[in-house]
Amino acid sequence: MKQEISALMDGELFEDQADALLDKLKRHPEAQQDWENYHLIGDALRQPDHICRSFEASFHERLQAEPTIIAPYNRTSQRIRNFALSAAASVMALALVAWLSLQVGNEPAPQLATVQQNTISSVRPASSQADDYLAAHQEFSPSADVRGAASYIHAVSGR
Amino acid sequence: MRQSKYLIFAILAQLVVSPAFADPAPVDEMAWLQTMALAARQTDYSGVFVYQSGGHVEMSRITHVFDQNGEHERLEGIGGGKRELFRDNDQVWFYSDGRKVRVEKRQIKRAFPALLPEQLTTLRENYLVTRVEEDEVAGYHARAVVFMPRDNLRYVRKMWAHNDTGLLLKAVVLDDRGYIIEQYAFMQLIVGSAIDRKWIVPDHSSAAGIAQDTQAPPPPKVELLEESSGWQVDALPPGFKKILEMRRPFRGNKEPVIHMVFSDGLSGISVFIEKVREESYIHSGLSGQGAAHVYNRLSGQHLVTVVGEVPSRTVIQVGDSVRYAGQ
């Protein structure tokens, strides 16, 4: 299974194989976890500044917290549907932008009025938070022993 | 007779050739690692070193002096805003544009060197240690040692140390595919006594400076735990041993945070466990800085954070295996 997942990610499966595997993924949560982990590792190898663990779950959660847009049904339903769709799209885009803005920078991020705070469980600026843990870890890490003062280099860099 | 002649020849050859040879004597390399750890503390030196990771490059000027009072160190960032750091043994002062911005004191004295004999044994079990060709770094003869892990849960490390003193001159961390994760090297260096010491007793450690510091609330206490807190890490890579477990104040948390430190002799992994505060946003995910990765995950009402100079797959594996096994 794991090999198949990896092959699927690399685009090495035929269409019918891929369909069968995706079907399996839907049924097996543990395989889905593998799928997520592989993507996470892939992301990590590409070394961006920050990688989010359960993006889908948190996005879903936040989307749930968005107000539902209710459009009355009438004859011009097609037009309204289009409007509703584009509105939904822009709400999603807004949520995405807000989410992204929470991922970067140390500034307290602006809150979207439509999002209830207590439903968010996955956002905090990465850099300053991670730095605290890194510094606390460094104090006891064996790699600091041979490096000496160089362990402090991030403290004096103009970052 | 013929045989003993051969033996004598072999011994002679060993004596003559061995310093420049890739010899498979790991015990010697382990002793060398101890020497390096000692040299980082006891050598007087001054120089400029460069750190590079991905597209990120930093340069610093460093001066280190060891005397009867212990270690004194000064680190200046080159480029960008002027940032400076002074260290007297366990006390560190941070300056930005000439203003003191932060003072830190290490509360737990580390046993030094931190590599214990049993850790050297585990090191040999988890890494293949070989000496490679001699090289020159910043004008000094260097002896290079490679630590090749026996699994893909840790990084490859290559270290160049000054032949005479053991001071680390250059270090490279590589992943299992041979890509450089981070490296650090002296570009210019003076080793020995001809080092400017005038900065050693500047105002930062004067009575006035310290009096000013004491107006800040006293640093909260770190409490070392003799017994386990009940939290357990099931999937540490082989060879990682717990060296410390403590309850420490952290980032203004009301409740202290549990901090466990594991080491395989070369790399460290820290596991932090804290109660989730309702008002705080928990950021779960993975981030990194050079060879170090940070991974966090919610476990019920607790936030588990794993930090280590290990590949991302390792911090994820460790983080996902943390569980509470106490009452």
Descriptive terms for the model:
A: 159 residues; mainly alpha; 3 domains; 8 helices; B: 327 residues; alpha+beta; outer membrane lipoprotein receptor (LolB), chain A; Phosphorylase Kinase, domain 1; eleven-stranded antiparallel β-sheet; seven-stranded antiparallel β-sheet
Gross morphology of chain B is globular
Q: What radius of gyration of chain B results from the CA coordinates?
A: 22 Å
The pLDDT mean of chain B sits at 80
Q: What is the N-to-C succession of helices and strands of chain B?
A: HHEEEEEEHEEEEEHEEEEEEEEHE
What gyration radius of chain A follows from the Cα positions, in whole Å?
22 Å
Query: Total helix count of chain A?
Result: 8
Name the largest protein-protein interface in this structure.
A-B, 50 and 78 residues
Number of helices of chain B: 5
Strand content of chain B: 35-45%
Distance between the termini of chain B: 72 Å
Uncertain ranges of chain A:
101-126
In the CATH hierarchy, the architecture of the largest domain in chain B is: Clam
Could you characterize the architecture of this molecule?
The complex is a heterodimer of chains A (159) and B (327). By secondary structure, chain A is an all-alpha fold. Chain A has eight helices and one strand. Chain A folds into three domains: 1-48, no CATH class; 54-123, no CATH class; 125-159, no CATH class. Chain A has helices at residues 2-9, 15-27, 29-45, 55-65, 77-103, 126-138, 143-147, 153-156, and one strand spanning 50-52. Chain B has 327 residues and is α+β, with helices and mostly antiparallel strands. Chain B folds into two domains: 20-205, outer membrane lipoprotein receptor (LolB), chain A (Clam), CATH 2.50.20; 223-324, 2-Layer Sandwich (Phosphorylase Kinase, domain 1). Chain B is 18% helix and 45% strand. Chain B is built from five helices and 20 strands. An eleven-stranded antiparallel β-sheet of chain B has the order 6-5-4-3-2-1-11-10-9-8-7. In chain B, strands 12-14-15-16-19-18-17 form a seven-stranded antiparallel β-sheet, with helices on one face. Chain B is globular and about 60 Å long. The model of chain B is unreliable at 11-25 and 203-215 (pLDDT under 50). Classes of the chains: A mainly alpha (159), B alpha+beta (327). At the A-B interface, helix 3, strand 1, helix 6, helix 7 and helix 8 of A face helix 2, strand 2, strand 3, strand 4 and strand 14 of B.
